[in-house]
Design goal:
Blueprint lengths: L1 H9 L3 E5 L3 E6 L3 E7 L2 E5 L5 E6 L1 H5 L8 E4 L2 E2 L2 E2 L2 H16 L8 E6 L5 H13 L4 E6 H8 L10 E6 L4 E7 L2 E8 L3 H16 L1 E2 L2 H11 L10 E8 L5 E7 H7 L1 H16 L3 H10 L1 E4 L8 H9 L3 E3 L6 H11 L1 H7 E2 L1
Parallel strand pairs: 1-9, 9-10, 11-17, 17-18
Antiparallel strand pairs: 1-2, 2-3, 4-5, 4-6, 7-8, 10-19, 11-12, 12-13, 14-15, 15-16
């Protein structure tokens, strides 16, 4: 008891949403203190060694602009750790930044993982977080955290459907009595949308553009259902024939065509989840509708497409990008709920 009081005095427990595109950290009692891209730039010394140059926002600015010896790495791919060593270094950097100071006692950390993660991947996450400075590590499934963050009554005996569209994965889950009744995870998210835009521009205009340009196109004029008035924007890239920089005008209608495949994959995942939901819970979803969370939920008119395809009410969570970390943070404050929803 004395130790718990002592550790509470000197350590700040953390909730982490370790995402493919960004990492968010919530400190107990303070809220979200860190929201940075999950990017690390490293410099190789030519002998197999690597030195970290930048982490987070500063590192993202360098994507596509680094010299030969410097590489911008995204260590999380499709929601799971792709580069163990770099993930550990990135987590240590973010944890230190979140605390602003060295704490006497290591923090207790709750971290989100995609639903359907393998035992090997679970172990990799646990070891990375422990190496980065955690006293205890709890894992919680992303759709559960998103549902809690979206203020859904997860502990009630009623069906709640959450669709969490992240950078690497889309998780569709039906939750009742603080448990996931049915879930489906597909490796389609914001990254696949960016890739679809890059390929479309390459095919139609013979123009090579980078990830950051594609992301800007998706945010500014990306859409899943036509706008009332078509929009357009100018983009710059490298001409694949002449090899020189060139500017082209791109319209929202063609961006919608480019995004048709990833959008269809998300819609299909929702339909399959609805087909496989037990009848009593399906009846609850007819009344309550579907809640969208994650950065991908901000794609213009995605809710309209889902509403048309499912004939159900579709709402976007109040703060879709922060839903997962806010839900994880809420679990930090409710240890009884943490015991129920943590996975082992």
């Amino acid at each position: 008891m004395a130790f718990e009081w002592f550790s509470g005095l000197f350590s700040n427990d953390l909730a982490i949403d370790l995402g493919t595109s960004s990492t968010l950290i919530y400190v107990k009692g303070k809220g979200i203190v860190c929201n940075e891209p999950s990017v690390v730039t490293v410099q190789s010394d030519g002998r197999g060694g690597r030195r970290i140059v930048a982490v987070g926002r500063e590192a993202k600015e360098m994507i596509g602009r680094t010299p030969g010896t410097v590489e911008a790495i995204r260590p999380i791919r499709d929601g799971v750790i792709g580069d163990f060593e770099i993930t550990e270094a990135m987590l240590r950097y973010f944890i230190n930044k979140a605390h602003n100071k060295r704490t006497i006692v290591k923090p207790r950390i709750v971290i989100c993982v995609p639903d359907g993660i393998t035992e090997v991947e679970k172990r990799a996450v646990r070891e990375s977080v422990e190496s980065a400075g955690a006293r205890e590590v709890y894992l919680i499934e992303e759709p559960m955290a998103a549902a809690i963050g979206a203020d859904l009554p997860v502990e009630e005996a009623a069906g709640n459907m959450i669709v969490d569209i992240g950078g690497g994965t889309t998780e569709v889950a039906v939750i009742s009595l603080a448990g996931i009744v049915y879930s489906r995870s597909i490796r389609v998210g914001g990254d696949k949308m960016d890739e679809a835009i890059i390929q479309h521009i390459k095919r139609r205009y013979n123009l090579l553009v980078g990830e950051r340009t594609a992301e800007r196109v998706k945010i500014e004029i990306g859409n899943a259902y036509p706008f009332a008035e078509p929009r357009s924007m100018s983009i710059k890239g490298r001409d694949m024939v002449a090899g020189v920089p060139r500017t082209v005008e791109i319209g929202s209608d063609e961006v919608r065509e480019a995004l048709a495949e990833p959008v269809r994959a998300i819609v299909d995942a929702v339909r399959v989840a609805l087909e496989r939901t037990p009848p009593e819970l399906a009846a609850d979803i007819v009344d309550k509708g579907i809640v969208l969370a994650g950065g991908g939920a901000l794609l213009a008119n995605l809710d309209v497409v889902l509403r048309e395809e499912t004939r159900l009410p579709v709402v976007i969570a109040d703060d879709p990008m922060s839903c997962v970390v806010l839900g994880t943070g809420r679990v930090l404050d409710q240890l009884e709920l943490l015991k129920i929803v943590a996975i082992h």
